[in-house]
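so my prof wants the structure for this chain in the tokens format not the other one, which i didnt know existed until like an hour ago. anyway here's the sequence
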Amino acid sequence: GQEAVSRVEFQRGEYRGRRLLLKGSIYGVLKGRFEFSYDEGPKFFSEGELDLGSLFSIIRSRVLADAEGKVAYTLSYTDTLNFKATSSAITLRSRYLAVPLSGGLDLGFTKDRLSGYVKLLGNQKASILASFTGDSRSGQVSFEVSQLPVLYRGETFRTSLFVSGKGKISSDYRSLNIGGDFHTSGVVNLQGLRGRAGGLSEEYRRVRLDISLTSSEPLRVNLPEGFLYTDLSARIKGSLYEPDYVVNAYFKGGALTYFEKEFFVRRGEVTFTNKESQMDLTITAPTPDYSIIIDLKGNPQYPKAIVRSEPPRDTREVLTTLVLGGAETEGLIPVGGALISQIPQISGLIKDARGMTGLDIKVQVSPTVSPTGEVGVNATVSKDLSQRISVEHRQSTLRNPRETYTGGDVKLTPNTSIGGRLYSDRSQEVRVRIRKKFDF
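here's what i got, hopefully its the right format
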């Protein structure tokens, strides 16, 4: 079975008349001695030390942290309870901190009131200073952090930040209030966007937030398609269950790759709120004859694009030059879809595809050249309706009517399928496919 955290051994006991006396020792995570007596009232006294290393060896996997050091304590009760705990040499490590923090603590409880402080330092810059008070009705922790190196590693989101600021946590033991003003700097790696997790506990309604966060210098935000330098301003208020938030990011520079071309960030900003999000971003890519400029505006997931050039050129020429540069780079900012929406023949297709809510739709965009030398763009929207049935629609900017069609396939057997296409000139085609291996 699991080893006991501590054990108590009675070493001496006396009972004379109306007086009772018990003495003993404590072994394990908590080491010390205790004495209990009763003579016209109970009295208790204990002193010893808490071994943080032994304690965290038991709870390390639950709290994702580790600590070392010993905390000396005294505990007494006559008419009131009195408690004192001190340490001048403790060390804290956490998966969320880049460096260990060392320092001391002082904690006391007397006259039904708790008070104390914790001070931890790391690498001569990072520090945490917290003071706390409380009684039977409420408790409060005030804290200040300076250049605290915070790490977070998620599946699609990682950060390495330095955080400074002041905050306060208070509770009436029924609800919890968390507030503070903080500023940060560092690096954010963002590989994907995930929606809000569902099924939150009703207990989250008891937690109230009032937190502001600003960047002390531009953050570097790494994306799949490149990087951005960003000034950040954020505010979150309300319940943790359904918070109100506003996040403003102001782009100060960066480089993003689309269609195998490197675009430089000229200017931009994006605003995220719990109600809606808006983006206004301008990126530019130089070519031998002119610079391609793309303005992205609207919802960050489905922005509208305005394509232009310096010096001015025909928009179709600019689009063709851009798309023929190479395959679209997968990124968090959907530049490819926004660009294709500028071509009238394809914009309706993209719009219809976005409106098919709940369907797992695949959209593929690629440049093409006809046998006559005409340059264009094909956009194909496809959907697997089941394991046997699939449909697709392709829209092309080429003049050839057989480059634009609607079709589908039905798999009859693992090796046999039948399909058809209806072309833009109303001509039709039926195809039967048979897959067979021949051994020669």
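also thought this was worth mentioning. The chain has a mean pLDDT of 85.
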